[in-house]
Every structure is written in structure tokens, then in C-alpha cells.
Design brief:
- The chain is an alpha+beta fold.
- It is built from four helices and seven strands; from the N terminus they run E-H-E-H-E-E-E-H-E-E-H.
- It has a seven-stranded antiparallel beta sheet with strand order 1-6-7-2-5-4-3.
- Strand 3 and strand 4 form a beta hairpin.
- The protein is globular.
Length: about 150
């Protein structure tokens, strides 16, 4: 399994409760661009409307910018492939206060590009500061021990 894009900020800003896998509907040049590692997930999210899931805000630049169609939009919304049961469940949970669907990573699964996203709850600022302090303490102890 090769990871093409990773949303590192997601685990810092959100507490991921459940993880899901979905297929992406892409154009040919987008597949090539993603496989070369040119996808950005920061600031993106998943939304469910009218029984359909979409990835919004993810940036996939053109594989060959000079050869791309003039109407190509790198930040267009992309449809996700999910089961009807999953869609219904996620639509209910995402509408609850404080919950969001956040993309975590894009990877290859048997030649198909998949998106892993999570049902997440936002962290408070004091939780984030506490995590930073723990990381600094661990780093300092490793330095002192010489590991």
C-alpha cells in the first residue's frame, strides 16, 4: 500500500473516532497527478448531500499544466464511492453538533486510488497545547538520555 497524500494536520486538530475507506471518481490526468504525489488534503473535508458523498477542498494540480484543459479546476469537488448504509449512517452522524468528516490519507489499494477519511470531533485549544507540551518533554528526555 503506497500513500500518495497524508493530512498530518487532521490528527492534531481533530480526534478521529471512526475511519472509513471510499473510492474516488477521478479523471485520467488526476490519477497520474496523484500517483506522482501532487495531491494536497489540507483544508479539505467530506460532505454528504442528497445521498451522495463529495470531497471538497482537496487540490489536485494538472499532471501537465501546459497541456491541461482550460476549464480544469484543481479544487473541484470529487465524488466518493460508498455503500448506501454507510452514507445514511455518516449523514446522520455528521449532522450532529461537533462532528465532521475529515480526509486522512489517499493511498493505492490493489491499483485503485482510495481515500481514508474519519468521523472526527474537534479538539479544544488546551488539548492541543497539552499535546505539544508532552511532545517537547519526550524530545527533551531523549536528548538527555542520548537516544
Amino acid at each position: 500500500m503506497q500513500v500518495y497524500a497524508d493530512n498530518k494536520k487532521a490528527t492534531f486538530d481533530y480526534e478521529v473516532l471512526e475511519k472509513y475507506e471510499a473510492g474516488l471518481i477521478l479523471q485520467g490526468q488526476e490519477v497520474k497527478s496523484i500517483r506522482t504525489g501532487h495531491m494536497h488534503l489540507s483544508g479539505s473535508y467530506v460532505i454528504i448531500q442528497n445521498g451522495k458523498a463529495e470531497l471538497i477542498g482537496a487540490k489536485v494540480p494538472a499532471y501537465q499544466p501546459k497541456n491541461a484543459a482550460e476549464s480544469y479546476n484543481p479544487e473541484q469537488s470529487r465524488k466518493l464511492l460508498l455503500n448506501k448504509k454507510e452514507l445514511d449512517y455518516l449523514a446522520g452522524r455528521a449532522n450532529e453538533k461537533g462532528f465532521a468528516l475529515i480526509p486522512l490519507k489517499v493511498y493505492d489499494n490493489n491499483g485503485r486510488i482510495k481515500l481514508e477519511f474519519g468521523l472526527a470531533k474537534g479538539k479544544k485549544n488546551y488539548d492541543k497545547k497539552e499535546k505539544i507540551k508532552k511532545r517537547d518533554v519526550e524530545r527533551q528526555t531523549k536528548r538527555e538520555l542520548g537516544v
